[in-house]
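Trying the structure run again after the queue cleared.
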Amino acid sequence: MNAQTSLLSASRFKWWEPVVWLLAFAAPVLSPSHALIINEIAIVGLFAVSLDLILGYTGIVSLGHAAFFGLGGYAAALFAKLVMPDPLVGMAVGIAAATLLGAVASLTIMRGSDLTRLMVTLGVGLICLELANKLDWLTGGADGLQGVVMGPILGRFEFDLSGRTAAYYSLSVLLVFFLILRRVVHSPFGATLTAIRDNRLRAMAIGIPVTARLAGVYTLAAGVAGAAGALLTQTTGFASLDLFEFHRSADVMLILVIGGTGWLYGGVAGAVVFKLMQDALSAITPQYWTFWIGLFLVVLVLVGRERLIRPWTWLARGQRGGPA
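Done. Tokens:
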């Protein structure tokens, strides 16, 4: 089987994929009381997918991915408050702002070891946090950006208190970006990314423009993370410094530990497990829910994800790379 045939085979939808998405879009109707958490899962899932693009497929380790998430959120919120409240235009503004920052920040991850990249990406996130704090005349500082009112989606669908419109909006954006990224990772461009991840020197030796590929994928991932941040501020009507906090980057890394890296469904599956556990455990033990999640992660690492989710890995067979 040649490389082109292999890519075509991997890009074909499996029988279970439409079923998963149909169930996801049916969830706000089947369980309307959980529409708000469905909205959160879709947002966090999109954020995790954006990180998986650079971590799982390219091998770029980042602890500052929240910088793009936060900038996208603030840009969308400021646009709605100061210019116009249209959600789709605001989404485009948030994506553009995060993409621009990603293009600039991509210059910092070209050289050095994984440890160097960890520190540099963390530094970018901390700089964005401090700027948002100091520019309180624009961002609201520690008090957050309040009074963000969003208009109806497509001029017809208004955001409601139950969260159903927000859930469908976030799920739709997640699906669109998932399909785009799915096409990207199963393209020749995606194949070069995995080659860079596996052996950067060998990739350079066979003529792959490593620097350009790293810059391109990092910028793309930043834009997708910005879309997730825009979704959060648009569906909640509030933007705060919490968007840039370190725990955002740490949580999305844990989500990929749960769901697996190197396959896009890992980010979505990890988001579902993480948010449902967080919701259930915080209701039982509000002070110690992080302990139980930490214990779950320890068991997951010791026992092995494959043993715990063996039926799902069978379903995922054929996804290039598989859960790692």
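The first helix runs from residue 3 to 11. Worth checking whether this holds up in the mutant runs.
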